[in-house]
Every structure is written in structure tokens, then in C-alpha cells.
Design brief:
Helix content: under 10%
Structural class: mainly beta
CATH class: Mainly Beta
Strand order of the largest sheet: 1-2-3-10-5-8
Number of strands: 13
Strand content: 35-45%
CATH superfamily: Jelly Rolls
Shape: globular
CATH topology: Jelly Rolls
């Protein structure tokens, strides 16, 4: 069954930080409409703030539309200026770390869409962390195990 809604009427339960007390507010549009295979969000990033931690995905393809404001897209070590109307695609499984930074004086509004994949693993290179989405587990890659081998005959 299809659903129709209006972003100005999204229930508070589907808004991360509905009162915009922190640096980021997100409307979970796809969730309110019952989307199963894709997520659709609108992120509102305050001046000086970041949209997310710098991260990549193993299985999640993403699409972004800068709806208003301006900022920087930090992607694979580069910093690229973005403005309203810019569209960005980020393929899955390419180890493309990304993050938006609002360096402007107004709110940066981003339409953020992608596929939902329970097997996706997010990698946070700035922190050397790995997040297993389906298990809700985070591992620190600096915690190495010494003298371990995958060889079953050792």
C-alpha cells in the first residue's frame, strides 16, 4: 500500500532531536512512510557542525541532494565545496569515507537516501573503529590480537 505524507507533519517520534537542541536534526521520512528497502532522511546541520562522523559503508549505496545552505563534503581525504542543488552519489563497497561539514552561516539541509542492508559494516577511519550494523557491535581496530592465525592446523 502506498502512503502520502508531508515533511511538515512528520510525527515527533520520527525526528531525531525534534527540538533541534544539538547540532543535527534528522527527519526519518522513509521510516514514517514504511519504506523497507531504502531509507530517506532530511538532515539539518547547524553552522559549524558535522552531519555524521567520517565513515564508509561496505554495502550501502547513498545519494545526497543539498537542499539549502552550503558546506564541505569531506570524501576520501578531499574537501569539496557543496551548495544548494548539488547532488552526490556514493556507491556501495568502494571504501568511500564521507561526511558533510557546515562551514556556512545558515542551516545546511541535505536529502540523504540509500539502500537498507542489515549486513552493512560501517568503518570510521578517524577513530579506527568498525560498526557491525546487524549485531550493533563496535570494534576498535587498535586492539590487536597477537600471535593469532586463521590456520586451523597451527
Amino acid at each position: 500500500m502506498y502512503k502520502i505524507s508531508n515533511i511538515n507533519k512528520i510525527p515527533r517520534d520520527y525526528i531525531d532531536d525534534p527540538d533541534f537542541q544539538t547540532q543535527l536534526k534528522t527527519l526519518l521520512i522513509g521510516d514514517v512512510l514504511g519504506c523497507e528497502k531504502i531509507y530517506v532522511n532530511i538532515d539539518y546541520v547547524k553552522p559549524g557542525a558535522k552531519s555524521t562522523k567520517y565513515h564508509s559503508h561496505t554495502r550501502q549505496e547513498e545519494f545526497f541532494l543539498i537542499m539549502s545552505g552550503k558546506g564541505i563534503l569531506r570524501i576520501n581525504g578531499e574537501e569539496i565545496s557543496v551548495v544548494a542543488g548539488d547532488v552526490i552519489s556514493k556507491p556501495a563497497g568502494k571504501d568511500i569515507a564521507h561526511q558533510f561539514i557546515n562551514n556556512g552561516s545558515e542551516i545546511l539541509q541535505i536529502l540523504d537516501m540509500g539502500n537498507r542492508d542489515k549486513e552493512d559494516i560501517a568503518v570510521y577511519p578517524d577513530e579506527n573503529k568498525v560498526f557491525l550494523r546487524n549485531k550493533k557491535l563496535v570494534f576498535d581496530l587498535d586492539d590487536t590480537v597477537k600471535n593469532w592465525s586463521s590456520d586451523p592446523n597451527e
